[in-house]
């Protein structure tokens, strides 16, 4: 029996267990990890001390013996209002949920192009988009840290990526408006520094071209995804001498702002303006009319990235062929669009 002297309460560490057991920290870690090479008498002694101290092993103690880290770093480009962003919150929710299920630890890193990533201790990295921080991805790859990129199709680097079919989603939205008889269709873009916004603009133009509709540059208004700029864009569109009858908006939050501006200007949605958003944000259900939108599988993209990264982290192979995956979108038809009268 190991007798423990009682003293002032404090956080019990692995060093305390090792000292009172009379063994090394590595031996304690091996007992915690159930590695069979530990002598039976040492194993019994360590387990007895752990039980009496009510010691809760830290993540790092549990992994000391294996030499591998189960810490997943999620790198999200920093921008204003990130914690109010449906996109960011869905990614964090999806990634966090699966990390818990796979017993991985999640480290959230908000980065800008000037940030230096502290890569020490990370077993793998998920890059949520690449926006002016390509150097961080290249640094991780140079250090042979298992990495995966989401929401960005990376063609020219040997890295796995999972992205959304933004072009196809945008095209389906505009095709739907055209099928309702709309010819004057505006597009309020997202921030064109992002691949998603660029691709949604491409999908908009592609649909017009395929349906032999002329492109009116005045109907394309560029924003940074913020509701403030969406408001300014909506006011400009609705006050035009020849306003559009429909608008495809690059995010649901901006589409809801366009809807609010229309009401303020005594315009009816969808009678005066049909609107399609992009995201399938639940808030789109609770506006004056339910928002027609393009559903993108954010949670699936997030969880698939964790599964793929977990495989990379466990793999003993130094080099594997990267996977390039594009997930499909789905048009969700609700109340914010109407057919034009012939």
Itemize the secondary structure elements and their pairings.
Layout: H1 14-21, H2 25-32, H3 40-53, H4 59-63, E1 71-77, H5 86-101, E2 105-111, E3 124-128, H6 134-142, E4 147-150, E5 160-164, H7 166-179, E6 185-188, H8 195-210, E7 220-221, H9 227-238, E8 246-249, H10 252-264, E9 274-279, E10 292-295, H11 298-314, E11 324-327, E12 330-332
Parallel strand pairs: 1-2, 1-3, 3-4, 4-5, 5-11, 6-7, 6-8, 8-9, 9-10
Antiparallel strand pairs: 10-12
Description of the molecule:
With 342 residues, the chain is an alpha/beta fold. It folds into 3 domains: 14-63, lambda repressor-like DNA-binding domains (434 Repressor (Amino-terminal Domain), Orthogonal Bundle); 71-164 and 299-327, Rossmann fold, CATH 3.40.50.2300; 166-296, Rossmann fold (3-Layer(aba) Sandwich). Helices cover 39% and strands 16% of the residues. It has helices spanning 14-21, 25-32, 40-53, 59-63, 86-101, 134-142, 166-179, 195-210, 227-238, 252-264, 298-314; strands spanning 71-77, 105-111, 124-128, 147-150, 160-164, 185-188, 220-221, 246-249, 274-279, 292-295, 324-327, 330-332. It has a 6-stranded parallel β-sheet, with helices on both faces. It has a 6-stranded mixed β-sheet with strand order 7-6-8-9-10-12, sandwiched between helices. Helix 1 packs across helix 2 (25-32) and helix 2 packs across helix 3 (40-53). Residues 1-9 have low confidence and may be disordered.
